[in-house]
Amino acid sequence: MSDFSALTVALLAFRDERNWQQFHTLRNLITSLNLEAAELLELTQWKSDAEVEALPTDAQAAEALRDECADILLYLLLIADKAGIDLAAAARDKLAKNAEKYPVEKAYGSRAKYTELG
After folding, report:
1. Within 10 Å of residue 79's Cβ, how many Cβ atoms?
2. What CATH number corresponds to the domain at position 12?
3. What is the rounded distance in angstroms from the CA atom of residue 101 to the CA atom of residue 106?
4. Which of 51, 76, 85, 102 could cross-link with 107 by S-S, CB 3.0 to 4.6 Å?
C-alpha cells in the first residue's frame, strides 16, 4: 500500500467517523482546497522574499507552513478519492508530459512557457 493509499484510508476513516461525507461533494472539496491554498499564500502576505525563505527556520511559522501544506494534501486526497484519480500515477503521467513540453536543451535555465521556447 502506498503512502497516499494508507493516508487516504486514514483520512476517509476520520471523515466517516464524523459523518462528514455528506458535505464532501466534488465542488465543496475543490472549493475547500482553494481556501486552504489561500491560507498557505497568506503566510507570505506582506513579507519580503527573505522573510518567506526564513519561514521554515522559525518554529511557529514552520508549524503553520506544515499545517497548511497538510490541509492542502488532505483535500487533494479527498478530491482524488471522489474522482477516482490515482494521484501517484497522475503525477508520473504529468511529469512525463511536462518533460515533452520542456525538453532540457530548450528549457534549461529558462522560465519561459513551453509555447515560447521555440
Report:
1. 18
2. 1.10.287.1080
3. 9
4. 102
User: Residue 84: how many CA atoms within 13 Å on its side-chain side?
Assistant: 0
- Assess contact for 74 and 106: CB atoms under 8 A: no
Average pLDDT, the chain: 96
Domain interval for residue 54: 3-85
Residue pLDDT, tens place only, 5-23: 999 999 999 999 999 999 9
Same domain, 77 and 92: no
CA distance 18 to 48: 40
Q: 80 and 36 in one domain? A: yes
Buried b (16+ CB within 10 A) or exposed e, 99-117: eeeeeeeebeeeeeeeeee
118 confidence band (pLDDT: 50, 70, 90): confident
Cell 482553494 maps to which residue?
34
> 3-state SS string over 5-33?
HHHHHHHHHHHHHCCCHHHCCHHHHHHHH
